[in-house]
Amino acid sequence: MNMRKIALGVLVAGVVSTTTAFAYASTSPVDIVSKLTGKSVETLYTERSQGKTYGTIAKEAGKLEEFKAEMLKNKKEILDKRVKDGTLTQEKADEILNAIKNNMANCDGTGSQRIGQKYGVGFGGGQGKGLGRGTCNGLGRGYNK
Fold this sequence. Notes:
It contains 6 helices and no strands. With 145 residues, the protein is mainly α. The protein has a domain at 25-119. The radius of gyration is 18 Å and the shape is elongated. Keywords: Signal. It comes from Caloramator quimbayensis. Pfam families: DUF2680.
């Protein structure tokens, strides 16, 4: 019985993660850096977990300007979708986009600009691409009942 639950859980997780990957593939910074640098996503996750930002990785590869352009394009698409969905006004979207453009002018790839965070837009949040730094350690200390 438990093996069936595990198998079903793995299947559902695979379907959800595949659907999520398709839904967010164009907005993921790691996918952009991978495309620009030719590095695998797994390699980039490793570099990211060691403290490098995706901007730093792009800069080291001589691709910072291309990275910034792609990120701006994707953020604009997200804002446009939110305006279309009615969750954001066009005026607010324009304000956010102008702030992003101003911040990008000073962007050095270190992530210090915190583009979009001031507005609580959540660019890139919740895409299932975290670094796995949760509090649980996976030692199976739960109890089956």
